[in-house]
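Consider one such protein record:
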Amino acid sequence: MPFYEHVMIARQDLSNTQAEALIEHFGAVLTDNGGTLVEHEYWGVKTMAYKINKNRKGHYAFLRTDAPAAAVQEMERLMRLHEDVMRVLTVKVDAHEEGPSAQMQKRDDRERGDRGERSDRGDRADRGDRGDRGDRGDRDREPRRRAS
């Protein structure tokens, strides 16, 4: 069966338990149609880049599934009809990556306080030097005059 990854954004006024119940509900829909929910992650409430249905924030969830296309289509159809789900993104992948998603790894780094040292960026960052900027074109021409 093909592998899929789904990201779902639910309304911000839901509680954490209600958002996680949505994940379990859609996982059950998937298993009822012959698929399996391999793994799921609840990413928490995050601020979105723009408003969706008058909401600035949303509960983000990530699901990894192994399911036939018909099961995924049915789950997506029900997600789009559900009033608490604002957006759904489904991507077909060749294989599932081991371990937590990149989003959860970022969260783990923040919790541990790993910020990265400036010395890791190379010595140019310490000097404020932007490096060789290449040929800047013809610089010998007259400066532009302002219109009065």
The chain has a mean pLDDT of 81. Residues 16-32 form the longest helix (17 residues).
